[in-house]
């Protein structure tokens, strides 16, 4: 399953808000074996959102749109998604009941707060869409064909996503290895692993942790295990995090190992 994420909000593009939603969703989907192949941030512009939703809806198995739902003037995501599918907005009775229930809970919890909420506006969703109740907030989300519309407030987003998480599943699996070897020293081994096995291998430096993290990704468990085992025998890697000082002493050690390998001491590859 291939998924695209569209995060909506002027505040994301101006740098006023860190886009933690995209990071969280991508990680959560990866845990479910899903391949997230696009992450796009767009402004609170109805036409732009509609165009991207229509394009991505045709190109991906699922599209998740976050942010821009609610009752303020810049909340145009729901209207834009309706535009993308040529639908009108219609008040969902299920969404309306959920909004009214949430308002009643707020009134009970905070009796001094008088909320002037346009319930019909909050409950207006694209015609024939499936409402998604907002158990952590007010504005409902919805599902229209393969497009999922979720809130932008992180707590609300996470709660609502978990209610539909079972609708996202894929075959991608991953394994992690760790090494203190510099990237340049392990490039040939990483390339050979990808040639030998049906996996991809990424190398992600983490100077704070003092290691490089290798991520092997594949759809076949046996190939993934074989690729991981081969790397464990071919280069200095570990299945558990390792660390070292990347300072001056570390640089000298790396130079020494590099010189040794130039003299032919690199581990032999399996036939």
Automatic annotation (TrEMBL):
Tell me which SUPFAM superfamilies the record gives.
Molybdenum cofactor biosynthesis proteins
Pfam families the record matches? MoCF_biosynth
Ranges of residues in domain MoaB/Mog? 4-172
Q: Which top-rank group of organisms is this from? A: Archaea
Q: Where is the composition biased (Basic and acidic residues)?
A: 254-271
Q: Where is this region: Disordered?
A: 241-271
Q: Which NCBIfam families match?
A: molyb_syn (TIGR00177)
The protein's name in its UniProt record? Competence/damage-inducible protein A
């Amino acid at each position: 399953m291939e998924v695209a994420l569209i995060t909506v909000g002027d505040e994301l593009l101006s740098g006023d808000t860190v886009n933690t939603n995209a990071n969280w969703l991508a990680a959560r989907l990866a845990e479910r074996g899903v391949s997230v192949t696009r992450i796009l941030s767009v402004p609170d512009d109805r036409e732009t959102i509609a165009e991207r939703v229509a394009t991505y809806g045709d190109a991906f198995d699922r599209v998740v749109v976050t942010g821009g739902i609610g009752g303020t003037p810049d909340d145009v995501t729901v209207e834009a998604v309706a535009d993308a599918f040529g639908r009108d907005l219609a008040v969902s009775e299920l969404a309306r009941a959920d909004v009214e229930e949430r308002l009643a809970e707020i009134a009970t919890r905070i009796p001094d707060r008088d909320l002037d909420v346009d319930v019909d506006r909050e409950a207006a969703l694209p015609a024939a869409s499936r409402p998604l109740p907002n158990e952590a907030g007010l504005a409902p989300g919805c599902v229209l064909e393969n497009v999922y519309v979720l809130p932008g407030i992180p707590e609300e987003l996470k709660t609502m996503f978990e209610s539909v998480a079972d609708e996202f599943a894929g075959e991608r699996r991953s394994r992690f290895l760790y090494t203190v070897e510099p990237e340049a020293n392990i490039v040939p081994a990483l390339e050979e692993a990808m040639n030998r096995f049906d996996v991809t291998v990424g190398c992600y430096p983490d100077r704070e942790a003092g290691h490089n993290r290798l991520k092997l990704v594949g759809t076949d468990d046996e190939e993934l295990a074989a690729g991981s085992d081969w790397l464990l025998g071919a280069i200095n890697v570990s299945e558990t995090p390792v660390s070292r000082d990347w300072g001056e002493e570390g640089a000298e050690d790396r130079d020494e190992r590099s010189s040794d390998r130039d003299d032919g001491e690199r581990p032999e590859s399996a036939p």
